[in-house]
Every structure is written in C-alpha cells, then in structure tokens.
Specification:
34% helix; 7 helices; four-stranded parallel beta sheet; 204 residues; 2 domains; two-stranded antiparallel sheet; alpha/beta
C-alpha cells in the first residue's frame, strides 16, 4: 500500500509500505489488553508499611497485667497504640502483566493501520529544527496544522527534543521505541520516512 507524503506546502508524492504492517484489521480487544499491560508495567508498586514485628521497640511489657485498671497490653507496638504497627500493612507488589512479543507487535500493526485509515498518520521525508527553540518548532507544526502530535523520527536530535519538551501536547520518540500508549494519546502522528521504514522492519 501507499501512504501520502506531506510537506509544509501540501502533498509531496507517496511512499510504499507493507500491507502486513499498515493494512491489517483493527483489533480493539488486543489493543486494550496491550495498553492495559503497558500501563500496569509502569506502576511502581513500591508502597510499604510496617506490621507490629517490623516497628522498632516495644520489647518490654508496658505495665503489669493486673491492678492498673487499664486494658491488658503486651507491647506498645500493637496496632491499637499510636506509633504501633499496622494490622494489615501494604506490601511492595508487582503489577506487571505478561504480553508476549507477537501480541505486542500485532497491536502496534493494528494501531498504525487504523491511524493510516483515519488519516491521522502524517508522513514526511524528514523533520528537524535548526535550534532548540520551542517557538521554531511551534511555527513548523502550525504550518502543518498540527497541535496535538507525536513526532516519530529515526533518532531524536537534541534540538528537537529540547524544543518539544515545553509543548504539553507534543512528544518526540524514536521509531524503534514507539509505544502503543503514545500512539493513542495524540490526535495525529508525524513520522519521517526513515522512521517509517524502521517501524515497518520492526513489525514485519
């Protein structure tokens, strides 16, 4: 299949891509599973609290068993006491979900194919900025009528990355590291031809 090339003045020809990578059926359930697993893998899961055994101190009985008029107590680190351990403490846990490589690539193929069908995939020969200035990048994107966009290049340059980091609806990624969440988060995806070939090789 062919994807139209774009420049600041409009259409600029086309580029041939594989049907196996950019012309597959949209699989919503697979994409949902892969995106859920991707987001789950990003969770830290490092929350932790101490139980009564882990809290420092409390080795001695605070007062005698009988004769004080108070409730029985064996340690000041009981969950009933201020500064004591938790009865059911939170513990570190892993939220990772297994998604094999075949499923992950199939989800990316489905996403790219749907982006192409919806004309949300903007292909350019190259894309760069001369200086790490947000204003320069913003003017280039405005000429292309792009405001909410993921820019995918073969290898992000410092100028482009620095210029994009102050634009909250613009992200830059390498073709070899593009992920499904970023592809779905933005309204459009701008990809250069070298990055497109990189993605095609990755998904074939």
């Amino acid at each position: 299949m062919e994807l139209a090339l774009t420049n600041s003045s409009g259409s600029a020809g086309s580029v041939e891509v594989s049907d196996a990578a950019f012309g597959v059926v949209f699989n919503e359930s697979l994409i949902h599973q892969v995106v859920t697993a991707y987001l789950a893998g990003a969770r830290a899961g490092t929350r932790a609290q101490k139980n009564r055994a882990a809290v420092r101190g409390g080795g001695a009985k605070p007062y005698r068993q009988k004769g004080t008029g108070r409730a029985r107590a064996g340690t000041i680190r009981s969950p009933l006491w201020r500064g004591g351990g938790r009865a059911f403490p939170a513990s570190p846990q892993r939220h990772e979900q297994k998604v094999n490589r075949k499923m992950y690539r199939a989800a990316l193929r489905s996403i790219f194919s749907e982006l192409a069908r919806q004309e949300r995939l903007v292909v350019m020969e190259s894309f760069s900025v001369d200086a790490p200035k947000t204003r320069g990048l913003e003017s280039q994107l405005k000429a292309l009528d792009l405001t909410d966009v993921l820019i995918v290049v073969e290898q992000p340059e410092d100028n482009l990355s620095l210029a994009a980091r102050n634009l909250h609806r613009v992200d830059v990624q390498a073709g070899a590291a593009v992920d499904p969440v970023s592809l779905l988060r933005h309204e459009k995806v701008l990809v250069t031809v070298p990055a497109l070939k990189q993605i095609e090789e990755r998904l074939s």
